[in-house]
Fold this protein.
Amino acid sequence: MLLEIKVPSVGESVTEATLAQWYKKEGDQVRKGELLFVLETDKVTLEIEAEADGVLKISKSEGETIPIGGVVGTIDRSAAPVAVEEPAAAEAVEPPPAAPPPTAEPPPVEPAAEIPLAAEPVLPPSVRRLVAEKNLDASKIRGTGPGGRITKGDVILYLEQAAVAVPSEVPAPPRALPHEVAPAIDESITRKPMSQIRQRIAARLVEAKQSTAMLTTFNEIDMTRVQEIRAHYKEPFLKKYGVRLGIMSFFIKACVEALMEFPELNAYIENKDIIYHNYYHLGVAIGAERGLVVPVIRDADKLSFAQLEQAIIDYVKKIQENRLELADLEGGTFTITNGGVFGSLLSTPILNIPQSGILGMHKIENRPVVLDGQVVVRPMMYVALTYDHRIVDGRQAVTFLVRIKEFIEEPDRIMIEI
């Protein structure tokens, strides 16, 4: 009996997906719950599991775009029992007839069984299978997971980087028809199709530029007090809540307070109406291997510092393990992005439409500033607020950013649950 493997629905706005990579091969035997392939939409990357035991038949290749509900292959469930029982029967019959051959067989079998067992504590099962299928050396793959653990995303990135390096090393085309193929190959460039996520990012950025009246205002913040609080409460906070007290939770709290005072930055334009949100769903931009994603922390005004930090950690893990869902990205009312983690000193962030505001954080640098007539060195951060000038006036935007500055420089003004 054949079971069709279909592209699942991941949200009303998603109509198609790209089959990024197969974890199994044509004719492979699969078990229910085993990972079959990676599916990439214009918003999220998902891992699809087998729904039953059986033999896999692949009908769609890697890189193909398939509509939601489309069939990518089948699982022959009737072949499952035969494939499992026959080898077992053959192994059971062989040992009795001749004693010498079985004694000669175990030595080569045992070392082969020991290799995956030795690697098991280091690599998760799904990663270990992918490494084995692609015949990779795990020691050459840099792990970005917790404690340096190698995630499936790390392996995929390694394969992509290796694929990019191949064209410049293997001059295969000249062997066949040098006079025809050589002119078409330019070894000084590498052409690679854009992923659906990258295409979606590009389209939304262009749309934001064309459909809004974006303007950016800047300020700088003295991070001294925040750094003092983090240093002073570092250990008790970690001991009590199990998470580290980061900088992002301070900015989320500050943004919520400022948004309450300036609701236009928590609203958007729909036709000729302004839609005001009476809730605060803040998106936090996180750089992923396949592009920037903005998961949403819902009802940020109701969460403590520890809950905000935990929410960010949970999203980072979901992104690394390709478990991010479309619902995690929808419904944001305001966005915060931190280019400082990559070393950015100053930038002009682009709106995450239809939102009317986005706050850009940057690198903290020790700089000379004048305080009470004296030149002193302080840890300073430039911040940028990009806003939609159609709905937000310059006075509102500038004052909003000043409020952020005040809350961060005097964080005692916002509640800290320590």
